[in-house]
Amino acid sequence: MFENLTDRLEGVFKKLRGHGRLTEENIQEAMGEVRKALLEADVNFGVVKEFIAAVADKAIGREVLTSLSPGQQVVKIVHDELVALLGSQAEPLKLDGRQPVTIMLAGLQGSGKTTTAAKLARLLKEKGRAPLLVPADVYRPAAIEQLQVLGGQVGVPVFASTAEQKPVEIARQAFTAASTGPYDTVIFDTAGRLHVDDELMVELREISQAVPLSEILFVADAMTGQDAVTVAEKFNADLEITGVILTKMEGDARGGAALSVKKVTGKPIKFVGVGESVDALEVFHPDRTASRILGMGDVLSLIEKAEAVVDQKSAEQLAKKIQKNAFTLEDFLDQIQQIKKMGSLEQIMGMIPGINKLKQIKDAPQPDQKELIKTEAIIRSMTLKERRNHRIINARRRVRIAEGSGTSVAEVNRVLKSYTMMLKMMKTMKGKGIMTGGKRRKL
Ligand code: GDP
């Protein structure tokens, strides 16, 4: 997500970092490069112009805070402007008020509506709601079946519509069924076309007049960049959308649609699709996204995720140990247990700022659950002394550990190697100033 833009912006800020004081000229030059980077990321031209003007205005002639270097100050201004551009804060779905809540998904064909309908239903079900999925795409062959299959996957009932019915008729019947049945949320999956056409808009308007809609969410493929924004404008003009869902964000290295759509349509991005599987839908957070774009990683998400399973105290202890180069095999064992709870190591590493720069992490083999269990067994077969000082583990001890854990010497060697690699990595991270703060540093 956003890799190209992040790389470009990191380059711009690196240059600024070298200056003790920033002159108007430095800032203008940097802004010229930010402008180029945004245009290359396919951000709307007008949006870029306004953005650069706002940043330059705030950066030039501003008192430099003593706690920040001038370069950092510019990064902070850019960060704040990016947050504003992306919509300031996460915009939740309108779930209170009239019940059942009704959500219509609209967008072009292939944008990801049907998939997103199921993802959204899953998310709402997890929150304790009782959704009903309604297939109202009677044109695309197999769209109804597709939603039925996806509904089965996420365990959400799918309204029994047929391709012979008119979409507005389906919507009306489904709304009545939901109002009298055990449902509190209705998600309508509608038909798309390859291009915007009047017939489609008439059909969608008919639905919106036939049933009271809580939300009309425009779904677009983020990778289509400015095209997605242009189509969003048309849908908004005709239908008064209430929000946007951008799909396929995980494959979007540029970010033009994400950075333009709120400003152009005035409507917030509410969710982003980040993969094909039914759990790959995330609430859109402007601040976290801005941090991610600036290469700070998604520290907040990481902290939230980590906090869910790691208690703060042991995290702090661990950070101290890393600081003091006192990370033992026992700590390694603890970490393995945490990782087992938290998800894939790669996913976690990806959220730490600056981590994409450390090639050895990217290239390091990612452990799977089976490997983790084996590693755990190997460390458990070591004596306390060995766990605290890996240097004493000689060939004889390795044979004993292998036997004790029911593995082989080669596997014991592999575990010791990944442990020493981890030690090395921690030293590198310390050297680069990563993980020294522990907290998300305010720029
Ligand atoms: P619809 O025509 O708008 O209903 O689009 P579909 O829901 O059928 O999606 C079109 C294609 O996009 C399917 O192959 C989906 O699996 C895929 N897709 C949808 N959302 C995402 C996403 O967030 N990431 C990725 N990689 N693929 C997605």
From TrEMBL:
Q: Which domain of life is it from?
A: Bacteria
Q: Per its UniProt record, what NCBIfam families does this chain match? A: ffh
What Pfam families does the entry give?
SRP54, SRP54_N, SRP_SPB
Q: What's the name of the protein?
A: Signal recognition particle protein
Q: Enumerate the subcellular locations listed in this protein's record, separating them with semicolons.
A: Cytoplasm
Could you say which EC number(s) this protein's record lists? 3.6.5.4
Q: Which PROSITE patterns match?
A: SRP54
